[in-house]
Structures are given as structure tokens and as C-alpha cells.
Amino acid sequence: MIRIALDIGSRKHRYAMSVDGKIEEDELVNERPVLLAFFKLAKRDRDVRVVMEQTGVYHWEAALAAHAAGLEVVLISPRQSVNFARALNTRTKTDRVDARMLLQYLERMPFERWHPPGNHLMELRTIARYLAGLTDQLTAAQPAAPLRGAGRRTKVRDACASTGDPAPGRTASAKAARRR
To answer: The whole model's pTM is what?
Structure first.
């Protein structure tokens, strides 16, 4: 059995792969064609298990590509990952160390297979992301609202300054003390 552990990143994934007890390590670009080719090459008529941490949206492409290639996938939460690293007394936090730690997780912990959500949930996710993008564009296109009451205070201060009066709420002695 081949075991692959992916430390997920936004642009690149660091992997550690155990093949017949020998560990190979390298990086993969976070692009679906690259991931799919890697997983299909790893499959080669053998059982393959992949573990990765759920990191926002960056793990989606890798998880879906691994599942599409026929690999068994397990996703673990960042909390599980941190707790497992603590149990191993791991103090260093690098991509390489994380990939090796995830490989140990895959070898030692019970395997809970992940299945991608149904098509209707994937469509709903796509629509929700599209709406979030539209909301961001709409917010960016609107001019910034003035601060509440900022215009009124400025007008009052300008009027007081032109007459030589102290600012509202300040006495002449307080203004003089402030100058010192």
C-alpha cells in the first residue's frame, strides 16, 4: 500500500509518500491537472491512501483530484493535526515536518474515508462563492460613507476658529494651557 501525506499550501503542496517503507518527498503545484497526473501515477494498480489537512479552500482541488483518481482520502482538521504533532512532541513547524507528521498520522490512526459532497452541494457551493464575489465587488464599487457627525464638527470648529473663539466645550484658559 502507498501512503501519501499532503501539507496543503495556497500555491504548492509539500508531500511525503511512503512506498514499501521508503519515504519520498517533493512539492506539487496546486493545479488540478498536475494533481490528477500525480495521483494517477501513484495509483498504478495499487491501493493508495492520501491524508491532508482541511485548510480553508486550498485542500479542495487536491481532495477532489485524489478522489477522482480512485484514491482513498482522509481529511483531518487543523486541531487534529496540531494535537497529533503535540503527541509526537514535534516542536518544529515546517512544510516538510508537517508532511512527515501527517504521514505518521496516516500510518497510526484509524482511517476514516472522505467522500466528496453530492453534485447539488457542489453547485450550491459554487453559487455561494459567486454571490460572495459579487458582494465584494459591490462593496468595493460604493464610495465610502462619511463618518457620522464628522462634517458637523468640522464646520463648528472652522466657524469658531474664524471668530477667535475656543473650540466648543473648551474654555480659553484650557486652550492656553494646552499651548504651553
So the answer is: 0.67
